[in-house]
Amino acid sequence: MGSLNYFSFRNTSRMGESMAQRGILLVNLGSPDSPSVPDVRRYLREFLMDERVIDVNPWLRRLIVECTILPFRPKQSAHAYSKIWTDEGSPLIVTSRQVQKLLQEKLPYPVALGMRYGNPSIKAAIQALLAKGVDRIFLIPLYPHYAMSSVETVVVEVHRVLRELNAAALLEIQPPFYNEPSYINALIESAKPYLEAGYDHLLFSYHGLPERHLKLADRTKSHCMTEHCCTTPSPAHVTCYRHQVYETTRLFVEGAKIPKEKYSVAFQSRLGRDPWIQPYTDHEIPKLADRGVKNLLVMCPAFVSDCLETLEEIGMRAREQFLSAGGKNLTLIPCLNTHPRWVGALYQWIMT
């Protein structure tokens, strides 16, 4: 299976637009219904059986998931989820619903929220929009950077659900917004209080990807993973996750005036034994402490809402790792969450 061209999904038809009832569909990754082992197992099974997450043939994927991951991982993940769970539920779901509510208060269109895995489902969200007479859907995958396991799988699933429901709604899609000025400005504004408080080093920790996913997404089939591929202009960059995260970093540090020697980039959350994008966050954390960094800031721009990967993996485990290696303070800069600049950026994309 090769990566699909993102823009092949974009419906740019304006036919009948003036007569259409518009609806907004926000989609994020998802979360288990609870931090119980059965709910986590159910969630992980849905997530990991996605062919765009574990991109091997279906029989091998089922063997990997059912025999090597699900017998052990749900208990570990359930314990991690229990550390961040709130009285209202999963932080990712709670924050996403708050953003949905804030946008709904500003917009003349109905706003629905779906998760690629778990609840609320994409199908339920689309059905809610259709029930309100919507026949033009503006989809916003809540991922700044393109990856087959994030933006692409959301777009594919939305198309599948529309076919299943026999819905004739026009579909518009917000492209990855990794370099959108309003997104970059929101990041800078949200991080400003932490930067102004003083720090020794700022680490950008992005979600990792298997290296093979970069090659699959390379529309040229010859650019990715070559020398200076991320900085040499290429059509491959339209769907290149690594190029896009480095571009986000470049724009942020230019806008926030971060000296070159005071920041670095790493990649977290890898799964399995295949090579993933390097350097790895959990390898870089102790190295920074060894270099004498005492006050470390970490931000995770690939996530727009705080979740397990930010709150537990970075805010708890990485902090403990940094302190054990001799660091003094590791401060996690919160994700955009409900920051007014972020809600404003979403509103701007919807209204233009």
CATH hierarchy, class of the largest domain: Alpha Beta
Number of DSSP E strands: 8
Radius of gyration using CA atoms only: 20 Å
Any idea what the CATH architecture of the largest domain is? 3-Layer(aba) Sandwich
The secondary structure category is alpha/beta
| CATH fold descriptor of the largest domain | Rossmann fold
- Output the helix-strand order: EHHHHEHEHEHEHHEHEHEH
Question: How far apart are the termini?
Answer: 35 Å
Q: Tell me about the biggest sheet?
A: 4 strands, parallel
Strand order of the largest sheet: 2-1-3-4
The fraction of residues in strands falls at 5-15%
Number of discrete helical segments? 12
Query: Which percent bin holds the helix content?
Result: 40-55%
Mean pLDDT: 94
As residue ranges, the low-confidence spans are 2-19
Question: What's the overall geometry?
Answer: globular
Please indicate the count of domains.
2
